[in-house]
Specification:
Chain lengths: 160, 136
C-alpha cells in the first residue's frame, strides 16, 4: 500500500468534498460531488476492494450524480440566496471532527499496518452473496423495488 | 475461546512469509511510511465532518442530500478499512456491508430526490427554511 497514493487520494477527495459542500452554484457542487465519490472509489481500490470501488463508480458517478443533475435542471427556477451561511453547522462539524480525531489518536491499537491478504475475487464475493448473504440480498432487492415504485408515485403528476 | 484465538492467528499469518519475499523490492514495505488504519479513519472522519457541514449549513434540499450521501460513503469507507486491517480478511464481511450500504444509499437518494421534486412542485421552492407549514 503506497503512502504517496494515499495522501494524493485524500487531498483530492477532501478538496472535492469541501467544494461540493461550499460552492454556491448547484451544478458545480454536483460535479464536485461526483469527483469526491471518484476519490472514495480510489480509496476502495487502494484498500484492495476493487469490486466495491467499481460499484461505487457505477452507482454514484453513473447514476446518483446524473440524478442530482437532472433534479437541479428540473427545479432551478430561482437562485437561492447564498448570503446567509449557517455558522452553527460549521461549529458542529468542527466539533464532531475534533471529537473523532481525539478518539482515533487516543486509541493505540489502531496504528497497525495492513497485513498481506489474498486478493478478494469477484467469484468469492458472488459465492458469499449467494450463500451467507442471500437473505440480505433479497431484502435489498425488495427495498430497491419499493424505492423505485415510491419515487415514481412521488414524482407522478396528479390527474384531476 | 482463548485457546482458539492463537490458532486463528497462526492460520492467518502462515501465508505471509512467501509474500514478503515477493514484496522485498519495495523499500517502504512494512515501514512506518505505509498508511496505517488510523490514517484511513482520520480521512473518513474528515469526509464525515464535511458531509455533516453540508447537511447542516446549506439551505438547499439537494445540498442536504449530498451531505447525507457523503456521510454514508464515510461509513462505508470505515467498514472497508476495518475489513482490510482486521485479523480475518478471508471473510469479506466489511465488503458485503459496504455493497449493501451502497444499494441502500442509492434507493435513499432516489426517493430523496423525488421528494425534492414533489416539494418543488407544491411550494415552488427548494429552500428548506421556507418549508415551515408544520410550524406551530
Amino acid at each position: 500500500m503506497n503512502s504517496a497514493a494515499f495522501f494524493v487520494i485524500t487531498i483530492l477527495t477532501l478538496a472535492a468534498a469541501l467544494a461540493a459542500a461550499s460552492l454556491s452554484k448547484l451544478i458545480h457542487a454536483a460535479l464536485s460531488f461526483a469527483m469526491a465519490f471518484v476519490g472514495v472509489a480510489a480509496f476502495y481500490f487502494l484498500l484492495g476492494a476493487e469490486f466495491v470501488g467499481l460499484v461505487q463508480v457505477f452507482v454514484y458517478v453513473g447514476a446518483v450524480a446524473v440524478l442530482i443533475v437532472f433534479t437541479i435542471l428540473l427545479t432551478r427556477r430561482e437562485q437561492e440566496s447564498t448570503g446567509a451561511f449557517n455558522w452553527g453547522g460549521v461549529v458542529v462539524a468542527i466539533a464532531v471532527f475534533g471529537g473523532l480525531l481525539w478518539a482515533i489518536l487516543k486509541t493505540q491499537s489502531l496504528s497497525l499496518a495492513a497485513p498481506e491478504i489474498e486478493p478478494l475475487t469477484v467469484k468469492r464475493i458472488g459465492e458469499v452473496l449467494m450463500t451467507d448473504y442471500v437473505w440480505p440480498l433479497q431484502c435489498v432487492g425488495l427495498v430497491l423495488t419499493a424505492a423505485l415504485i415510491g419515487a415514481l408515485i412521488l414524482v407522478m403528476e396528479e390527474k384531476r | 475461546m482463548v485457546s482458539v484465538a492463537p490458532t486463528k492467528f497462526a492460520m492467518a499469518r502462515t501465508p505471509s512469509p512467501a509474500r514478503e519475499t515477493r514484496a522485498l523490492p519495495n523499500p517502504n514495505e512494512g515501514h512506518a511510511m505505509t498508511p496505517t488504519l488510523s490514517l484511513f479513519l482520520i480521512a473518513s472522519a474528515a469526509l464525515f465532518s464535511i458531509g455533516l457541514l453540508a447537511a447542516l449549513s446549506r439551505r438547499h434540499a439537494i445540498f442536504i442530500l449530498i451531505g447525507i450521501e457523503m456521510m454514508l460513503a464515510a461509513a462505508s469507507l470505515n467498514f472497508i478499512a476495518f475489513w482490510r486491517f482486521g485479523p480475518q480478511p478471508q471473510q469479506p464481511t466489511g465488503v458485503m456491508v459496504a455493497i449493501f450500504s451502497i444499494a441502500i444509499a442509492a434507493a435513499e437518494s432516489a426517493v430523496g430526490l423525488a421528494l425534492v421534486l414533489a416539494v418543488y412542485r407544491h411550494y415552488r421552492t427548494t429552500n428548506v427554511d421556507q418549508l415551515d407549514q408544520l410550524k406551530g
